[in-house]
């Protein structure tokens, strides 16, 4: 049980706080994206991220784009397991990212453009679980049936030998307190060079330096069982067993067995506190191509290579969760290669339609997943690569004012083996909308809102209790809201 608990805690707050995009990749990188959901063929300033080869379409001069998003996400797991104190029980996780920046700068000079971007390319939020997670509680909930089942045969033997009934069969209930918080952010520092080969063709090459940081803080303490009243009621299981072991007249072998079991339970159910951090860096090369066969049509391609990365663990104040985290240990934390394609077309002078497609090469990356405590590569837990397809529309209702809306479908390809209560990937649909207001020829304000609805997921599994495997089920649910604002400035 200790291994199960520690494994669960170790992965509870990895870089899985993806707030828009693939399994580990964020693509919600501007306020313009939030209001359209389709920017892969952008020729605006946010093309620094979405379509660097399209920056050749900007006017000569300096261009800046400052964006922020406030992101709120619920991550709920409802677990059905017979020995939970409340069955089924809903574990609620709150993920928040009040500040999710996107900063872009471009210098355009004739056929050349140089650009810089700064944004959270992965993670970007913090998660809080006030009541823990099933992988924390389910192992602890098995202590009661283990005492009832495995030690109940001793009731009659001890009573016959000592005249005192230990009442193992009458142990009922458990309680503990827990709280865990984690943060994860992968910041990207991107540099691009763009060359406009002809009026129709632009190319770009770029690179992104990625810094990863995950933090873990929390505790699990005060675990107690409800022992029979004549043994003192609520207490640690170790205390209860030692009290029984000290019953006058008990033989030495049974006494030693009870004391040994008590020592094991002390370790398994003892207080644990965590204050740890994981950091790492990676490098992402990228290539871009932009093609405009006619003035009203833009077609774009971008390929980002895989970001190979490991994160290294550090421990604060020796709070390692009872051996949960190992100082200076490393874990794989890649970001996958990605192919992005986009098209936009001005159907009317006042109406532009767009489509975007992202394909993530998840199976060729390593996200640090494990099965039964053993590290595995992604192809063992992912059947099909993740993809997204989005459609957007912008309608200009006045010279300085346009409204927009978009729809995005994201399709996951993970297997049931991938899913767990800390890291689950669900198919989703997102709707977004907003507006652009031009203060003048040089300054534009973007405002947007998006809401993501996720398909429910589930996983059936068994929990060993003695010689039996007891069925359990987790059901996964998420929802996400994004509020965004940005300003574009051209000098």
For this entry, give a set of tags.
53% strand; mainly beta; 491 residues; disordered N terminus; Porin; two-stranded antiparallel sheet; 14-stranded antiparallel β-barrel
CATH superfamily: Outer membrane protein transport protein (OMPP1/FadL/TodX)
Oligomer: single chain
CATH class division: Mainly Beta
Rounded mean pLDDT score: 90
The helix content, as a percent range, equals 10-25%
Tally of strands: 20
Can you summarize the main beta sheet?
Answer: 14 strands, antiparallel, barrel
CATH topology: Porin
Q: How many distinct folded domains?
A: 1
Strand order of the largest sheet: 1-2-3-4-5-7-8-11-12-15-16-17-18-20
What is the CATH architecture descriptor?
A: Beta Barrel
Please state the overall shape, judged from the principal axes of the Cα atoms: elongated
Order of helices and strands: HHHEEEHHHEEEHHEEEEEEEEEEEEEE
Q: Round the Cα radius of gyration to an integer and report it.
A: 28 Å
Query: What would you call the structural class?
Result: mainly beta
What is the terminal separation in angstroms?
62 Å
Our count of helices gives 8
Strand content: over 45%
Low-confidence stretches: 1-16
């Amino acid at each position: 049980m200790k291994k199960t608990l520690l494994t669960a805690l170790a992965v509870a707050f990895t870089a899985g706080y993806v707030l828009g995009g693939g399994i580990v990749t964020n693509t919600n990188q501007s306020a313009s994206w939030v209001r359209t959901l389709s920017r892969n063929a952008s020729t605006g300033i946010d093309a620094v991220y979405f379509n660097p080869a399209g920056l050749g379409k900007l006017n000569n001069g300096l261009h800046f784009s400052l964006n922020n998003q406030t992101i709120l996400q619920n991550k709920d797991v409802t677990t059905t397991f017979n020995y939970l104190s409340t069955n089924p029980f809903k574990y609620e996780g709150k993920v928040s990212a009040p500040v999710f920046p996107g900063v872009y700068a471009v210098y355009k000079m004739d056929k050349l453009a140089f650009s810089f971007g700064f944004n959270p390319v992965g993670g970007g939020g913090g998660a809080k679980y006030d009541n823990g997670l099933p992988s924390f509680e389910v192992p602890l909930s098995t202590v009661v049936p283990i005492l009832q089942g495995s030690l109940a045969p001793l009731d009659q033997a001890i009573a016959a030998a000592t005249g005192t009934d230990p009442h193992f069969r009458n142990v009922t209930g458990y309680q503990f307190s827990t709280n865990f918080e984690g943060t994860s952010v992968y910041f990207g520092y991107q540099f691009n060079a763009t060359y406009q080969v002809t009026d129709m063709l632009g190319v770009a090459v770029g690179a992104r330096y990625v810094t990863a940081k995950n933090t873990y803080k929390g505790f699990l303490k005060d675990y107690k069982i409800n022992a029979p009243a004549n043994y003192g009621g609520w207490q640690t299981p170790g205390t209860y067993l030692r009290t029984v072991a000290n019953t006058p007249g008990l033989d030495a072998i049974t006494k030693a067995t009870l004391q040994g079991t008590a020592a094991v339970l002390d370790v398994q159910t003892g207080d644990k506190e965590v204050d740890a951090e994981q950091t790492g860096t990676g490098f992402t090369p990228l290539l871009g191509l932009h093609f405009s066969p006619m003035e009203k049509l833009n077609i774009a391609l971008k390929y980002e290579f895989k970001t190979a990365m490991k994160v290294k663990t550090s421990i604060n104040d020796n709070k390692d969760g009872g051996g949960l985290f190992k100082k200076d240990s490393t874990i794989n934390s890649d970001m996958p290669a990605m192919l992005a394609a986009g098209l936009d077309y001005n159907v009317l002078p006042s109406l532009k339609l767009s489509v975007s497609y992202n394909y993530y090469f998840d199976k060729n990356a390593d996200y640090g997943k494990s099965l039964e405590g053993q590290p595995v590569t992604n192809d063992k837990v992912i059947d099909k690569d993740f993809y997204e397809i989005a459609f957007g529309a912008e309608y200009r209702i006045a010279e300085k004012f346009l409204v927009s809306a978009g729809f995005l479908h994201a399709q996951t390809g993970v297997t049931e083996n991938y899913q767990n209560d800390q890291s689950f990937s669900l198919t989703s649909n997102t709707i977004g909308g907003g507006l652009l207001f031009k203060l003048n020829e040089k300054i534009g304000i973007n405002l947007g809102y998006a809401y993501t609805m996720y398909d429910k997921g589930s996983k059936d599994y068994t929990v060993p209790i003695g010689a039996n495997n007891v069925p359990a089920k987790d059901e996964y649910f998420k929802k996400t809201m994004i509020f965004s604002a940005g300003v574009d400035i051209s000098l």
